[in-house]
Every structure is written in C-alpha cells, then in structure tokens.
C-alpha cells in the first residue's frame, strides 16, 4: 500500500515529508515526482510506511491538515491506470500493395 500526499508546496523536499510522517510510524520510501519537461516537483508525493496500520493512522491524522500554508490531501494511493495506446497496433496500415 502507498499513501498519496497532495497539495504540497513545490519547495518541499524528501526530508520535509519524512519529518511529518515519521510521527506515525516507520517510513520505507518517499517519492516526489518531477515534471519531465521542467524538472520541477509536481506538488505531490507518495509515502510507503512499514505497516498498513501506520499508513491508516497517518492518513486519518494528516488528511486536511494545514502544513506550510496549505491544506494537505492525504489518502490511499490508487493503482496507476494504463495509458491508452494510440494507433491500434496496426503496423501495416501504411504499406502499399
């Protein structure tokens, strides 16, 4: 399981997120996605904790909490949805016979 943490200030780094979440249990991993084109943080993070109970405790305590002037959005992360493929996989459509 993983926790989604949204509405983060862009200047937040991994250590800041760890500092907030360590109160609720042992943190296994923190990931702050970066924008591919700008190289800047995207304003959200994913946090993995040692147990589902620790994650549930962190979600209950931090969802809607004020931090660095923003209201955090904290919930269970959803699985990544597959991207649609374009072109339909028909590699022969441009061939001339």
UniProtKB/TrEMBL annotation:
Tell me the lineage of the source organism.
Bacteria, Bacillati, Cyanobacteriota, Cyanophyceae, Oscillatoriophycideae
Give an example GO molecular function: mRNA binding
PANTHER family, sorted: OS02G0815200 PROTEIN, RRM DOMAIN-CONTAINING PROTEIN
Q: Which Gene3D superfamilies match?
A: 3.30.70.330
Give every RRM domain span.
1-79
**What keyword terms does UniProt attach to this protein?**
RNA-binding
Name listed for the protein in its UniProt record: RNA-binding protein
Q: Where is this region: Disordered?
A: 73-97
Biased-composition ranges for Basic and acidic residues?
73-83
